[in-house]
Design goal:
Keywords: Coiled coil. This protein is α+β, with helices and mostly antiparallel strands and about 375 residues long. It has 3 helices and 21 strands. The protein has a 6-stranded antiparallel β-barrel with strand order 2-11-14-13-12-15. A 4-stranded antiparallel β-sheet has the order 3-10-8-5, with no helix packed on it. Strands 7-6-4-9 form a 4-stranded antiparallel β-sheet, with no helix packed on it.
Length: about 375
Amino acid sequence: MPRIILFTALTLLVSACNDKPLMVEDTVRSVKTLTITENTKANSRQLAGTVESTDESELSFRVGGRVASVDVSSGEKIIKGQLLATLEKKEYELAVQSAKAKLASARAEFKEKSDALKRQQNLRAKEFVAQASVDQAQAAFTAANSNVDVAVTDLENAQQDLENTELLAPFDGSIVTRSIEPFTEVAAGSTVFELQSQGAMKVEVLMPETLIREISYGDSTSVQFPTLKGVTVYGAVSKIGSKAQKGNAFPVSVELAQTTEDIRPGMTAQVTFNYGEAADASVYLIPITALDVRIPVENESSLEKEVPVFVLKDGVAQRRKLTFRDIRGNKLEVIDGLSPGDVLITAGVPFINEGQKVKAWEPTYNLPAVIQ
């Protein structure tokens, strides 16, 4: 009986060894992909900036004194010529009266010296006095005339100082900040208001040094605002800084062609710059992770380098060579080898080969827990 069992076991073992192994179906690898569209074109670059008023002014009194009244508040809209604040006038009114009195005295003296000069000239014509007397009268006349000129200037200055006790708006706009209160002393030239003009706006951005050469004065841009959904305005480059600031970035100003009441100074803006590529130019941005790093870069010494990637077509990975010209952050600017509609494999590249069956990865989400 044991022999029969042993024989049966050996027979089954040999039979199993002679049979062909069971075929296990190959697993189709999932890969991340990027579909090439117009949105992946590298013909433009978007930079964040801050909205500012085109005309901004810090207002101050040209004379010092005690504040008599303040007629506007922070945030208030103003019109050109509107009275903003006033200093006490008494001191300056007295200065005007004093200057008028001095001018009257100087004119009286001038008339006196003028008459004296005429008398001396008449006497000299009859040879009743020496020439020295005429010269002396002439000098007195000249001095009196100069005193009149000085007195006129002093009066004009005193009147101007009196007018400067009233601070008027230089243009239409609004009050950004107010730094004075009634009955306080202010010094001449100290800022008491900050004003911004109404309507005209600009966006200030910092442009990387790698892109500054691509723009010029007058280049058109489009501007969007994260807090204003659906609002897009157009502008033009109005200033390009000649010196780099922090991060080797250059200051660039974009003047907006039109504004709305919702667009206010201090808001964040996204400015899209176009770099002059033709509308149909095939310049795309792709992530560096799409490169097959197992194969060395060709033409490494040239400005235009060829790199290998995989595209997904009909469920199969196909190797393709792309030509790129520059690296922008963690992306490549591809100038040849891609067309709209191509599906580029961007993750999992080191684990796939030419002709391998793959599928686009689709995220799965856990179903929410249900409490019974």
